[in-house]
Amino acid sequence: MSIAMTETRQDAVLDSFGRKIADLKRSELYRDFFPVGHLAADRGHTRHGDRTIQVWCSNDYLGLSQHPEVISAQIEATLRHGTGTGGSRNIAGTSTAHVALERRLADWHRKERALVFSSGYVANFETLSTLIAAIDDLVVFSDALNHRSLIEGIVRSGAKKHVFAHNDLADLESKLALYPAEHPKLIVFESVYSMDGDTSPAGAIFDLAEKYGALTFLDETHSIGVRGATGAGLCEELDDHRATFVQGVFGKAIGTVGGYVAGPDAALDYVRSYAPGFIFTTSLPQAAMEATLKSLDIVQDGAAQRAELSRKVALMKAELRARNIDFIDADSHLVPVMVPGGERVRRVSQRLREEYDIYVQPINFPSVARGGERFRVTTAPFRTDEQIANFAEAMRRCLDEN
């Protein structure tokens, strides 16, 4: 085969990607990324050209990524230890800060052990896929609205699974009852579901797990830092620590980077020893772990911050309600503002940014069902009452005009 013919075939294969992207744009599902440069000196804002824009969709729920003490901790650790670890966890990549952080996380969640990963997604995928595959005939019961990282971990394991209706205890129990008590089972669910902002009936699910002899894996991603007396999440808030495994992240309310799983010692030692996404990747920098430890200090002593967050979220809901703006009034700090239509939600987002210096990212399929497009609004405790009212007013105007 000639070189020219080979290149022609390669070009044809590569051209197919362009056609697929064109199809994606026609379907109104193409996602534009808005580049931001978060401002540490002006929390909740970003620079865009010569303009300063308010960010109302960040997962940095408490604004700790711009907290001066957290920033100082990372800078000082970088000066001492450098910008990277230079290896995986088993090749010079397990710093003293990794060890201290994992011990502290285990204690925080009242578990025997914790394991830090490069992200929350990796923590879910690697832990679930490794553990499930190691248990013969394990059957998994997964909430219908579980995060993609949970779904992919379950699928990769190859185990048999049942998807139960979202937060539906009767449906979950009917599926658990299909198997004898001695059959190994695992229930996988979240504490707070980010797209609707609703909270799971965790205590009742633990009750079912005990009744039917199931292990549980609870993703506390959106509860860490904002629920519980010391910010340890929904389990701490309920004073119910029966979850077999608890997953959390640092990249949201903690304000740094990474994820983790806490649970039984032997099980997580198995993950440490066999999970490829843990073994064969460079570990997070020690400076990031030092910053996370400092942020945990602030979070664990942050009852006043959490109270202020609740107050500001309640105010946001009141301002939206006063303007007849459709939103899901869930029992969490997340406020989904409903703007059905892929093209419409993009137009509203663009107008808010261009005319009101407000950035909220459109949420569309597959993150939510078609027709359920929305903005997932977050209201940090440092927002002023005036900023919240102005946001709601700008949203009302843009909705009326689009």
UniProtKB/TrEMBL annotation:
Pfam families in the record:
Aminotran_1_2
Any idea where the Aminotransferase class I/classII large domain is?
Answer: 55-394
Report which reactions are catalysed by this protein.
6-carboxyhexanoyl-[ACP] + L-alanine + H(+) = (8S)-8-amino-7-oxononanoate + holo-[ACP] + CO2
Q: Which UniProt keywords apply?
A: Acyltransferase, Transferase
NCBIfam families according to UniProt: 5aminolev_synth (TIGR01821)
Enzyme Commission number(s)? 2.3.1.47
Required cofactors, per record? pyridoxal 5'-phosphate
What is the protein name given in its UniProt record? Answer: 8-amino-7-oxononanoate synthase
Family as reported in the entry's similarity comment = Belongs to the class-II pyridoxal-phosphate-dependent aminotransferase family.
